[in-house]
Structure formats: structure tokens, C-alpha cells
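Hi Y.,

Following your request, here is the sequence exactly as I used it, all 246 residues.
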Amino acid sequence: AVPMQASVPPTSKFYKDEYGQAYADFDLEQAEQLLDEIGMVDKDGNGFRERPDGQAFRPTLIYSKDFFDPTPALELIKNSWSKVGIDFNMKEVDRALLDQARAANDFDISVWVIDNITDVGLGDPWHIAKMFAPGPGSVPYSPWPDFINWIQTKGEEGIEPPEEIKYLRKLADKLATDPDPAERDKAAVELIELQAENLWSIGTVALPPQPVMVSNKLKNVPDRGLWDWSMRYMSPYYPVQFYLDD
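Below is the corresponding structure, written out as C-alpha cells. Let me know if you'd prefer a different format.
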């Protein structure tokens, strides 16, 4: 895998290095300076920073080992954050409990993969809502579940988003429904640029290899390919044409 911000992958026609590397420099000194500027300092001398109001800052990051195990990456993140005085708890939970907590906005921090943003699925409202713009269908995976609840219930539940977040929804709707391909592309670029500027979702690494074990007897299987949920993984490679050779 390679260090990369939460954005479209280099296989996308919309990818630019400025998106994939936005604020991705590893700079502990600058991190400490930024934390100092917002009032996050170690007031009790225990080696970890408190909130500006003096209260302890030790959020809990909930995660599950559903179809991937983020534990090794989270341990590396926890170690890096500790070097600038930030601590957090790691709590593994069942996938059903994870989805329930995130949908109810009853959590501090969580983590998920952003691997289904190839151009094939970029305009899908579910995918866009999951990553860059609040919308129906993706409450458990979005950085703003209560904004989505407000949108889905037409204001009866959740929290009303600020205007800048409502604007993201308009861009996502245009990307999903505008009949003009040029207009859809413009909406996609603006969404990606706004994510790179604001970092509503924070990236870590991208493009990890996905080994696929194949018997030597199974023929017509490609040596390399793109492994992506929006393409339904093996579907583009026509597995109906794989065959066994004794």
C-alpha cells in the first residue's frame, strides 16, 4: 500500500496528486504546532493533551473485523498520534453493533475502507454519500450520520446540515442524475476538490494488493486486475468463462 489521502484512486480519470496527497505530509512538528494553536495542550503533565476546556481528550475508536482487519493500521496510527500527545482507545465490536452505533451517531471515531470510488460507481448516490456527501443509503459508513438522518426524514430527525454540506448533496445529485456527461464530470471534480480541501474523511494508505488464490487447474483467470466493490470484484473478468483443466 502507499500513503494516500481519502480520495479517488489513481485509476480514476479525476485523480490528481494534489487530491491524493492533500495535507498528507508526515510532519510531527507542524502537528504539534497546530494542536497548540487550537488550545490542545498537556495541562496535567501526563504526556497527553487535554481539550481547550481542560477536560481529558481520549476518544474511543470503534471498529470491526468484518471483511478486513484494520487492527495493524490502527496500532500504527495510535503510536504516531501518541508522539504528538494524542491518545485514543481502540474497541473492536461486532459488525452489527458497529453499524448500529454509527447510524445512531453514538460513537467518537470510526474507520472504514474507501475502496469503491472507481469511476464505475462514482455517480452512485449510495457511494457518494458514503464518502463525500451526505445522502440516503449509507448512514453507517458516512462521516455525518445525523446529517443523513435529517435529509432522509425531511428534517424530522437528525441535525440540519450547514449550507456547505447541503451544497455537497446538490453536487452529488447532479453527479448521479444530470443527463449531460460534462456537467456530471464538473460535479465530480468539485466534490473531490472539496473533500481534498476539507478532509471530512481522513485517509491513511491506499492501493494495497489483494491476493487471490487460484488453483493451477483453473484456466482463463487473469494474472492481474482491479479489485473493487463497485465493479463487483471478479465480475469484469467473466468468471463464467473460467474452466477446469485436468
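The longest helix spans residues 181-198.

Thanks again,
Q.
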